[in-house]
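Handout, page 2. Input:
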Amino acid sequence: MDFMKRHKIKLVLLGVFILVFIASLIALVSMLYPDSKKDVYGNRLEGIKDVKISNQVITEIKDKILSSDFVDDTDYVLKGKLITFKIEVKADTKVTSAKKLVSNITECLSEKIQAFYDIQVIIIEDKEESTNYPVFAYKHKTSKNFVWTNN
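Output:
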């Protein structure tokens, strides 16, 4: 008891230091490990349930793209508000011919879908060493036309 009376101020300061350290540790952990139950996109996906893309529309787009003689394969990924089409063209396909394929995408998508989603198109050639490919196209939801990479 005599020890506590002699070191009262030091013990109080030690207790305050320990409480501040624990509070800082909790704050640091909560910043480094955010709550995984929350949505990754925050509120950026509001209204996405009202503007759905049906499988029928995607199938129609893929069929139109695959109907071209120079297309080998096409793939589609929807992540958040970004629609990505990956198109693989045959070797020695001209870039100008491949760029015309994006019109198939915009023809099949309604104005409502185009005004809500961003569209990205990646065109690759099945040949390993290609100087002209890959070619990327991107259309923001507020844009009317695609923007292309300069290859």
